[in-house]
Amino acid sequence: MIAALDHIVLVIRDIEAGIAAYRTLLGRDVAWRAGADGAASALFTTANVALELVAPTGDGAAGERVRAALEAGGERLTSLCFRVDDIETLHRRLERRGLAPEPIADGASVDAISGATRRWRRTRADGHGVKLFFIDPADAPPPSPALADAPLTALDHVVVTTPAPDRAAALYGARLGLDMALDRTNPAWGSRLMFFRCGDMIVEVMHALKDSAGEGPDRLWGLSWRAADLAAAQARLIGAGLDASEIRTGRKPGTEVFTVRNGTMGVPTLVIGRT
After folding, report:
1. What is the pTM of this model?
2. What would the pLDDT profile of 158-184 be if each residue is shown by its tens digit?
């Protein structure tokens, strides 16, 4: 039903500031820029997923929606957009599974850099506070070219926090059909973690054990990026003025990680590499 995670949306106040921040973090340039209806967007593509920055720029319905999102929760990750091969079949399955998807709509974007046009069909549904989009693209965006040595290569996992872990397990597993690779409660970590495979990356759902289960909204929380050379990526970011932590052993066997403490537009960010 779902082929992969196509992109993640990050709403910000200043598109140019966001572009500068993620050029530095990823070590890559923007792949696609567009603007319409009072909002501007910039797309950074990696080997397995894209990050779309969206900011208000003027009058229009899109700009008003972005302003409302910023007023409600500040700069933050808001949306997961899954890539599908057959939007009609997916729409019927979402309806049968009680997700009440919106009618299928056509979409298009014109790149301000090249003048090229991308087209897609999409629907969306509520993910208990996380906006879920489903896209059947006719065209793929171009790759983001590397701007520096040791660029980040791909997304390893996206983190969703939830007050209702059983509800989240039902949503991402039974209703969306993602493969649950792990469901572990670890008091040492203070959390219950669930890993759902999506393409070659993971949607990680985390519930803090200190919080009793409730019915509040889920939240898109953070991103973990892959680096082919972890030490070189850390050195590059420190050299660019970012606050990167020491390299430490990761929770996933055979990995090391470091934390990026600034320059991410407020997104909790980890960089992971293989040992």
Report:
1. 0.96
2. 999 999 999 999 999 999 999 999 999
Name which of 43-52, 127-136, 208-217 the model is least confident about: 208-217
- Beta strands across the sheet bearing 76-83: 32-36, 39-45, 50-56, 4-11, 76-83, 130-137, 117-127, 105-110
Rounded CA-CA distance 218/46 in Å is 26
Q: What is the pLDDT of residue 60?
A: 95
Q: Domains of the chain by range and CATH? A: 4-137 (3.10.180.10), 152-274 (3.10.180.10)
Phi, psi of 88, deg, nearest 5: -65, -45
Q: Per residue in 116-135, pLDDT tens?
A: 999 999 999 999 999 999 99
Q: Quote the CA–CA distance of 28 and 12 in Å, as a whole number.
A: 19
Give the separation between CA 78 and CA 69, rounded to whole angstroms: 8
